[in-house]
Amino acid sequence: MYCDKRMTMLMEYMLNNSVHRCVKPPILNVFVDVALAIGTEFAKYSPALLQAWLQASQFQVDCNDYDLVEHVNELRENCIETYRGVVL
């Protein structure tokens, strides 16, 4: 499919810890757009997306670092929105 390269690149960015944290939540929104555009063909990207969700859910944060807490909350909210957009 024509979006394989782009999806692979986006997945790599999601799983790469050196990518700035402000980039990851919008990437999750792109996944929803792609899922809506290609429909059932999106299923082949599900394992990698599940890995990104798992990584986001296991991220440990120091509660005294308010910026990081806010980022993790935003990331987790985007995971939920992505899940809803992809599954529905």
From TrEMBL:
UniProt keyword Repeat present: yes
Top-rank taxon: Eukaryota
Keyword Repeat: yes
Keywords: Repeat
InterPro entries: ARM-like, ARM-type_fold, IMB1_TNPO1-like_TPR
Importin subunit beta-1/Transportin-1-like TPR repeats domain residues: 2-87
Xref: SUPFAM superfamilies: ARM repeat
Pfam families cross-referenced by the UniProt entry: TPR_IMB1 (PF25574)
Name of this chain's protein: Importin subunit beta-1/Transportin-1-like TPR repeats domain-containing protein
